[in-house]
Amino acid sequence: MTGKRILLFTTSLILTVAVVYFFALPSPQEPTLPAAAPITLSRPVNPVLGRLIQDYQKEFSSLMQIAHTPGAAIAIVKDSTILFIRGYGVKQIGTRDSINEHTVFRLGSVSKPFASFLAGILVQDSVLSWSDPVTNYVPSFALKSPDQTKSLLLKNVLSHTTGLPYHTYTNLVEEGQDLSLLLSQLKDVNLSSDVGKQYSYQNVAYSLIAEVVKSATGKSYETEMMERVFKPLGMKDASIDYATMMSNANIAFPHVVRRGQMTSARISNTYYNVSPAGGINASVHDMAQWMMALLNTREDVINANTLSQLYTPLVDAPSKNRRYRQIEPIQHSYYGLGWRVLHYPTDTLLYHGGYVNGYRSEIALNPKENIAVCILANAPGELADNGIPLFFHMYRQRRDSIHLWDKNHRIKGTPLQP
Question: How much is the pTM?
Answer without folding.
Answer: 0.88
